[in-house]
Specification:
By secondary structure, the protein is α/β, with parallel strands linked by helices. It has 14 helices and 14 strands. The chain has an 8-stranded mixed beta sheet. Strand 8 and strand 9 form a beta hairpin. It is globular, with a radius of gyration of 21 Å.
C-alpha cells in the first residue's frame, strides 16, 4: 500500500520529473478496444520521452477496477524509456466508488479520479489527459524545452480525432498513427468535420453568432445544434429571458478554449493546488473540465493555446461512449436512462458568473472540491514501473515557491470560505 507521497525525487534521476501526465481508466472495455488504445497511449509517451529526453512520470489511476478482470497494473506493459519515464498505477478500490452517489449507473468518475493522480503528482508541470490520446512530436519537443510558465498559465491545445482502427496490417506504427488524416477538428470556436465545415459552433462573440446564423439561415437544424444537454424553458417570457441571458454572457464573458479540454489541460503543480483540482461533483464529466478553466481565469491564470502543430490526436472509439456530433444523442440518452446528472451549459454559464468573470466584474475565485480533494489523506495501492523503481513524491499541500499565493491573488479578492464544498 502506498500513502500520499512526500517531497522527494524520482529514483532514476537526481531530480523530480519535469512533467507529470495524469489519466484514469478501468478494465471494462469502455468504447471498445480499450486495452489496445491504452497501450498505444503508454507506448507513445515512452517513445517520445526517450527520443526527446523528457523526464516525466505517467500516473494512471485505476478507478473502481472490475473484480473479475485484471487491474491495469497487470493488464498493460510499461516501458521505462531508458530512464526518462516512470509509470505509477494507483488503484482506487470499489468501496471508495460505492460511497459516491450514482455509483451504480456511472462506474468511473473521471474528474475525481484525475484529482487522485494530480494530488499525488511530482512534476513541475502537470498535464491532465485521457488514455485515448497520442501526442504529436512538435508538442513533446516544446515540452522538452522545459521553459513553460509553471506559476501563472494554463495550457490548452486543439484536438484531432483519428480513425486509428482503419490502419491494417498488424501492429500499429505510432508515427503513422500520429500522421493519420483527421476525422474532426475540435477548436476553440467549435468542431469541424474532415472537409473543414463547422458542424458544431461554440460562439466566441456576438459577431460570430450573427455570421454563423446568417450563413446557415436556410438550415434550421444548424441553429438548434448544441454541444450538450440544455434546459429548455417553457413560456414566451422565460424563453426570452433565457435567450437574453445567453446573449449577455456571450457579449460580456470571454470563453476559454473548452473544446476537448478534458484531453489536454496543463498547469504548474502549484496552480493545480491553488485552483483546487476539478470539481468533485458525482456527475458525468461533461463541462466539469471546462469549469476548471473558468476557475483558473478567476484565480488570475493566463490561458495559452499552443499552435496547431501541437494538436493532440484522439483515437476514435464507439459511438455514444464519448461525445461526438454523431454520437451525442446516444450518449445523453444513456445518461438520462441511468438518471446520471450532467452539468448543463446553463449551469456552466451560471458558475462563470458566480466566479465574477465578465466585463466590469471583479473575479471571485473559489474551489469546487473539498480541502481533501483527490482523497489526499487516503492510502491507495500503488505500483511503480519499471519494476523496482522507488518513488517518493511531493508535499500535497502548498504550491511550490515559483509563485506565491499572494502573487497569484495580487489583483483579486480571496474567495470566502463559504461554498468551498459546493455540490450540484
Amino acid at each position: 500500500m502506498a500513502a500520499v507521497p512526500v517531497q522527494g525525487d524520482l529514483l532514476t534521476g537526481a531530480s523530480a520529473p519535469y512533467l507529470s501526465i495524469v489519466a484514469c481508466s478501468r478494465n471494462d472495455d469502455h468504447g471498445g478496444h480499450l486495452q489496445e488504445r491504452t497501450q498505444l497511449f503508454i507506448d507513445g509517451i515512452a517513445d517520445q520521452a526517450r527520443r526527446f529526453a523528457l523526464d516525466c512520470e505517467l500516473i494512471l489511476v485505476d478507478w473502481n477496477p472490475p473484480l473479475d478482470r485484471p487491474g491495469l497494473a497487470n493488464l498493460l506493459r510499461y516501458p521505462g524509456a531508458e530512464g526518462h519515464l516512470v509509470t505509477r498505477v494507483i488503484t482506487v478500490p470499489a468501496e471508495v466508488h460505492r460511497n459516491l452517489p450514482h455509483a451504480e449507473a456511472l462506474p468511473l468518475f473521471q474528474m475525481i479520479a484525475k484529482n487522485v493522480g494530480i494530488r499525488r503528482s511530482r512534476g513541475r508541470m502537470v498535464l491532465a489527459t485521457n488514455i485515448d490520446i497520442l501526442f504529436p512530436d512538435p508538442l513533446v519537443a516544446r515540452l522538452a524545452v522545459r521553459d513553460l510558465d509553471a506559476g501563472g498559465s494554463v495550457y490548452r491545445t486543439d484536438r484531432l480525432d483519428i480513425d486509428w482502427l482503419a490502419e491494417t496490417g498488424g501492429a500499429h506504427d505510432l508515427s503513422r498513427l500520429r500522421g493519420l488524416p483527421p476525422l474532426r477538428y475540435h477548436r476553440r470556436d467549435g468542431t469541424y468535420d474532415a472537409t473543414g465545415a463547422r458542424v458544431l459552433p461554440l460562439y466566441q462573440n456576438l459577431g460570430d453568432l450573427i455570421e454563423y446564423r446568417w450563413r446557415h439561415r436556410r438550415d434550421r437544424a444548424a441553429h438548434s445544434r448544441a454541444a450538450g444537454p440544455e434546459t429548455k424553458p417553457t413560456g414566451l417570457v422565460r424563453r426570452g429571458l433565457s435567450y437574453t441571458g445567453k446573449l449577455w454572457n456571450l457579449v460580456t464573458v470571454p470563453k476559454p478554449h473548452g473544446n476537448g479540454c478534458g484531453d489536454f489541460t496543463m498547469m504548474g503543480r502549484g496552480c493545480w493546488l491553488r485552483v483546487g483540482g476539478y470539481a468533485e461533483w458525482p456527475t458525468y464529466s461533461w463541462n466539469i473540465d471546462a469549469l476548471l478553466l473558468y476557475q483558473a481565469r478567476a484565480y488570475g491564470l493566463h490561458e495559452v493555446v499552443l499552435p496547431p502543430d501541437c494538436s493532440v490526436r484522439h483515437m476514435e472509439h464507439g459511438a455514444g461512449s464519448g461525445w461526438t456530433p454523431e454520437g451525442a444523442a446516444s450518449l445523453f440518452r444513456r445518461l438520462q436512462a441511468g438518471a446520471v446528472p450532467v452539468v448543463t451549459n446553463e449551469t456552466l454559464a451560471r458558475e462563470a458568473r458566480n466566479l465574477g468573470l465578465g466585463v466590469g466584474r471583479r473575479p471571485r475565485p473559489r474551489q469546487y472540491a473539498p480541502p481533501n480533494w483527490g482523497y489526499a489523506s487516503a492510502v491507495f495501492e500503488e505500483r511503480a514501473f519499471p519494476e523496482g523503481a522507488r518513488v517518493t513524491a511531493p508535499d500535497r499541500g502548498s504550491p511550490p515557491a515559483e509563485r506565491s499565493a499572494a502573487e497569484l491573488d495580487a489583483s483579486i479578492r480571496r474567495p470566502s470560505s463559504e461554498g468551498s464544498r459546493d455540490r450540484i
